[in-house]
Amino acid sequence: MRQKIVAGNWKMNLNKEEAEILASEVVNMAKDETPSDVKVIMCTPFIHLSKVKSLIGDAANVFVGAQNCYTEPKGAYTGEISAQQLASYGIDYVILGHSERREYFGESNEMLATKTDAVIANGMLPIFCFGEVLEEREAGTQKAVVEKQLSEGIFHLSAEDFGKVVLAYEPVWAIGTGKTATSAQAQEMHKDIRDMIAAKYGQEVADATPILYGGSAKPSNAQELFAQPDVDGGLIGGASLASRDFIDISKSY
Ligand code: 3PY
């Protein structure tokens, strides 16, 4: 049985008060309503992490994640936050390689490989994002694109470390566009990804790797997506900013 995960990517949203209200609501609702075998993760802007962590308290199925970290542990890198610093706050997960970071901040697969190492070396778990852009899908090259992102970004890991990674397939054409991949398109790619993992690490590791779908997932499509055999959960953008929607998604298995 693979871990079921619903992770919210708040992106650059919410002020202090809004963040505290949302996190408190999510924690209370997740305790009462989310099935105990589903992990709920809130990936917040850096400034909210510590407070959200304290609001989670002893809730057993709720976790906190960052949305990025820097490659280096410390030093003269004005404005950056290291994996080491995040770990010192007890942060559980770190999103790496979201398409917005790849596109707006020029993050390469090589840089993401270093960030992945830093996250794992500091005892946290990476949520590694990847996916093709519209032109690549239209050209039918999506599988090759994804394979390159995985081989250059995380296939350098040992099997033991790879076992700590959560994958998030996010077709870029479905992010912030309101377009979602059909459940059949998601399943096809998730199965291909699992086959790539099996070819590299063996079937047992592939069968144990959680692969989330990301890209305009919401309460109205989560059930169909999560019903696919190789879709283990979601990385949720806009719908994670509304506690009711987010928790409904966590109940969509
Ligand atoms: C989206 O759902 O749009 C996302 O980018 C999730 O990370």
TrEMBL record:
EC number assigned by the record: 5.3.1.1
Record Pfam families: TIM
InterPro entries tied to this protein: Aldolase_TIM, TIM_sf, TrioseP_Isoase_bac/euk, Triosephosphate_isomerase, Triosephosphate_isomerase_AS
Keyword Cytoplasm: yes
GO BP: any one term: glycolytic process
MF terms in GO: triose-phosphate isomerase activity
Pathway assigned in UniProt: Carbohydrate degradation; glycolysis; D-glyceraldehyde 3-phosphate from glycerone phosphate: step 1/1; Carbohydrate biosynthesis; gluconeogenesis
Binding site residues for substrate: N9, W10, K11, G176, S216, G237, G238
Active site: H98 (electrophile), E170 (proton acceptor)
Chief subcellular location: cytoplasm
Keywords of this entry: Cytoplasm, Gluconeogenesis, Glycolysis, Isomerase
Chemical reaction(s) catalysed: D-glyceraldehyde 3-phosphate = dihydroxyacetone phosphate
Localisation per UniProt entry: Cytoplasm
GO cellular component: cytosol
Keyword Glycoprotein set for record: no
Protein purpose: Involved in the gluconeogenesis. Catalyzes stereospecifically the conversion of dihydroxyacetone phosphate (DHAP) to D-glyceraldehyde-3-phosphate (G3P).
Subunit structure: Homodimer.
Family: Belongs to the triosephosphate isomerase family.
Protein name per Swiss-Prot or TrEMBL: Triosephosphate isomerase
Name of the encoding gene: tpiA
